[in-house]
Amino acid sequence: MWDYSDKVKDHFFHPRNVGTIDRPDGVGEVGSLACGDALRLMFKLGDDGRIADVKFQTFGCGSAIAASSALTEMVKGMTIDEAAKITNRDIAEYLGGLPEQKMHCSVMGREALEAAIANYRGEKGMPEEEGEIVCHCFGVTDRQIERAIKENGLTSVAQVTYYTKAGGGCEKCHPELQAILDRVIADTGGGIRRIAVAEKSKRLTNIDKIKLVEETIEREIRPMLRQDGGDIELVDVDGNTVYVALRGSCGKCALAGVTLKDFVQAKLREFVVPQIEVEEWSEQGN
Ligand code: FES
User: Of all atoms in ligand 1, which is nearest to the CA of residue 174?
Assistant: First the structure.
């Protein structure tokens, strides 16, 4: 089960501003029923040039309904320029957070708003539409993927799927998603990783954290230890304290303490959250 905030549940069970507007000033549609999520958003400006009315219709999960409802509440009373600055993270934050696996709902909301603003301004479509389709299952372009990576500090293919849906079907596009990730991370000189760590520390649930610790050990730590005939076992995660046991040659090494702090802890701080403390699990002592 996803861990939803009270505000997400409230907007899901009592969505605001559902419906249509007669002769709207701007209309934006994103997604498609074939892909499982679709959102139509429209607004009307008041005499003062601010958004006086805004309505949405969506086909999607509870998070899509909550994100769309929240977005309509956020933009009411804004000028077009103010509304254009809303990011998908703003929508998620307004809702008190969304499970990471559902962040694509906030991205869909932001894209629908951008499409509606583009429609109002007489522009043809969103800049993303100029990109090339990378994920054919969900019709996601390289531009959309690059933008989601940069704006949200994504560092893995799984995260790209959570935020854009790309890669969530046949998985044939995974190598290309990884190549885009590698390129964007290299271009930003590690900036993406720093955003990722800061963002994660704000929104990680305990289950997310344990999963990330396991993934980081598997991908970044175990292969290095095995090269020297050692290994590592994850024993427990208690808040930000991670208990591990070093095995093989690492367990007997006089420098085990250095390995734990300078390598294992450093990697977990880089890829999970900066507050991680690593402690050695001792079968006798614990
Ligand atoms: S092409 Fe991306 S999941 Fe199928």
Answer: 2
Residue 205 has pLDDT above 80, yes or no: no
The CA–CA distances, whole Å, from 242 to 72, 213, 232, 279, 286 equal 41, 8, 12, 6, 13
Mean pLDDT across 249-268: 83
Give the pairing of strands 277-280 and 51-59.
unpaired
Measured from the Cβ of residue 220, the count of other Cβ atoms closer than 10 Å reads: 16
Exposure string over 105-129, b if 16+ CB within 10 A, otherwise e: bbbbbbbbbbbbbbbbeeeeebebe
The stretch 137-147 carries a mean pLDDT of: 93
Q: Do residues 185 and 177 lie in contact, with contact meaning Cβ atoms separated by under 8 Å?
A: no
How many whole angstroms from 127 Cα to the centroid of ligand 1?
22
The alpha-carbon radius of gyration of the chain (Å, integer) is 22
- Cβ of 141 closer than 6 Å to ligand 1, yes or no, is no
82 close to ligand 1 (CB < 6 Angstrom) = no
On average, the pLDDT of the chain sits at 87
Q: What is the pLDDT of residues 208-229, one digit of tens each?
A: 788 889 988 998 899 988 988 8
Q: Three-class SS of residue 43? A: strand
